[in-house]
Amino acid sequence: MDKKGKILIVEDDKTIREELQMTLMAAGYEARIMEDFSDPAGSALAVKPDLILLDVNLPKKSGLAICEEIRQYSQVPVIFVTANNTPMDELNGMLRGGDDYVSKPYQLPVLLARIGAVLRRTFGNGAGAPQKTEYKGIVLDIAAACVCKGSKKCDLTKNEMKILHCLFEHPGDFVSRTDIIDYLWDNEVFIDDNTLSVNVTRIRNKLKSIGAGDFIETKRGLGYRIG
């Protein structure tokens, strides 16, 4: 069976993490578990998962702090899974970099649905798709949220990454501003026409810094294309 994506389970309760691993594998995911919590953020990044299920109450460092460390290097989706279930707990999880928040006890079918929804928002219909895509020597690294040309790279914000990802999905073709905004809204990035212009200008400046200043072309009435 083709795997639907690689999921890392960061949970200190052995019974819970093994149950989650079996459930995810039965659902077609590649499921990894973390057993050494000496450097959870570093260990998580080394696995290069498509999504992380992260408990908040861990033995040496809270999941909230771990998520903040991960966010310094990667935009990999993170779903907090925790017994802390007040509205303020959920808000704090989102503010610290989480993509979703699931309270214990949870129903496994509901958790699987939430995982699928986050993966679709991140990767489109190709959840678990390759986290790097390349066109004419420019590499968009989705997991690391950066764009590279040779040995040079620059970091991208979430909005910048989504805009570039939309253009990479239509290589060589013009994508209208309306289509880009609709794509972003479908992926829960809510921007208007002016904000799109600001983000494209920032992307161009970042591309220029790595020697790819002319990578995005604009044509009045048609929109943008990469090439």
TrEMBL record:
Modified residues (4-aspartylphosphate): D55
Organismal lineage: Bacteria, Bacillati, Bacillota, Clostridia, Lachnospirales
Keywords: DNA-binding, Phosphoprotein, Transcription, Transcription regulation
Function according to Swiss-Prot or TrEMBL: May play the central regulatory role in sporulation. It may be an element of the effector pathway responsible for the activation of sporulation genes in response to nutritional stress. Spo0A may act in concert with spo0H (a sigma factor) to control the expression of some genes that are critical to the sporulation process.
A single cellular component GO annotation: cytosol
Span of domain OmpR/PhoB-type: 130-227
Entry-linked PROSITE patterns: OMPR_PHOB, RESPONSE_REGULATORY
Residue ranges of every copy of the Response regulatory domain listed in the record: 6-119
GO biological process, one term: regulation of DNA-templated transcription
Feature: DNA-binding region: 130-227
InterPro entries found in the cross-reference section: CheY-like_superfamily, OmpR/PhoB-type_DNA-bd, Sig_transdc_resp-reg_C-effctor, Sig_transdc_resp-reg_receiver, WalR-like, WH-like_DNA-bd_sf
Native source species: Catenibacillus scindens
Protein name: Stage 0 sporulation protein A homolog
TM segment ranges: none
Classification via SUPFAM superfamilies: C-terminal effector domain of the bipartite response regulators (SSF46894), CheY-like (SSF52172)
Domain of life: Bacteria
Molecular-function GO terms, alphabetical: phosphorelay response regulator activity; transcription cis-regulatory region binding
